[in-house]
Write a structure and sequence with these properties.
Helix content is about 20%, strand content about 45%. It is an alpha+beta fold. The protein has one domain: Alpha-Beta Plaits. A four-stranded antiparallel beta sheet has the order 2-3-1-4, with helices on one face. β2 and β3 form a beta hairpin. It is elongated.
Length: about 110
């Protein structure tokens, strides 16, 4: 099992969610985050330009069986890209064990 963490643009969330469902990933968690990255956004207030490095993004946390890792990554890469700086990152981490609280199922059985 692997945990896939992805940081994506908020504007691409619907596209990524749909692509994940089409790839067979039907459960994941997400939350809104603020981060600092390479993208520099600016805004103008009363004629003065200000730059800010804090960027609003959506963080996805997905645990999948080993055979779903590459389809999950491909779905995020394809649907989350705008080809501009600030599209985000994907991280893949090992998961030692997982349990379904309701039934006590463990391992890959707990993911289905």
């Amino acid at each position: 099992m692997k945990k896939i963490e992805a940081i994506i643009r908020r504007s691409k969330y619907s596209d990524v969610k749909e692509a994940l469902h089409q790839a067979g990933v039907n459960f994941f968690s997400y939350w809104d985050v603020t981060g600092i990255g390479n993208e520099q956004r600016g805004h103008v207030y009363r004629g003065i330009s200000y730059s800010t490095s804090e960027i609003q993004r959506r963080f996805l946390s997905i645990v999948v069986n080993d055979d779903f890792v590459q389809p999950t990554i491909d779905a995020i890469l394809k649907s989350g890209a705008t080809d501009k700086i600030g599209d985000g990152k994907i991280f893949v981490l090992p998961v030692e064990e997982a349990y379904r609280i309701r039934t006590g199922d463990k391992g890959t059985d707990s993911l289905n």
